Amino acid sequence: MERMKPLRVIEAARRFLWADFDNAEEICVSNNGHLASIHNVEENTFVNEIAESGNDYGDGSDLTWIGLTQVNYPNNKDWTWTDGTPFDYKNWAPSQPDNYKGIEHCVQVSLQWCIVS
Q: Boundaries of each C-type lectin domain copy (predicted)?
């Protein structure tokens, strides 16, 4: 599965890095964590506030990954969190997830969730 669009990873120190989804998750794991999993509206608000800090969301390349993905697409189309917690909350933007061109299997945040490749 190709996941190449460079989006931001936010580290605990509020330092921003640019990485594709797989590299972003690897960075988090190497720091004893995972990309954010979101389980309620409060967590969603918290993650979005951090993601929006210093960001104008101009051309779409400055969006922020969360740890939601379709790991074994197309064999399994279920959404799962990279940290293994249950997928028990969602905040999809209108018309999402749309799997544009059949290549979008990772999720980024900008108030609501959109899938990207």
A: 21-113
Nearest to 108 by CA among 69, 50, 64: 64
Burial of 83 (0-12, 13-18, 19+ CB in 10 A): middle
Mean pLDDT is highest, among 18-22, 55-59, 100-104, for: 18-22
Least Cα distance to 51 among 41, 36, 32 occurs for 36
Of 51, 69, 46, 57, the closest CA to residue 115 belongs to 69
**CA distances in angstroms from 45 to 19, 27, 35, listed in the order given:** 23, 23, 16
Q: Enter the tokens of residue 113.
A: 């969730």
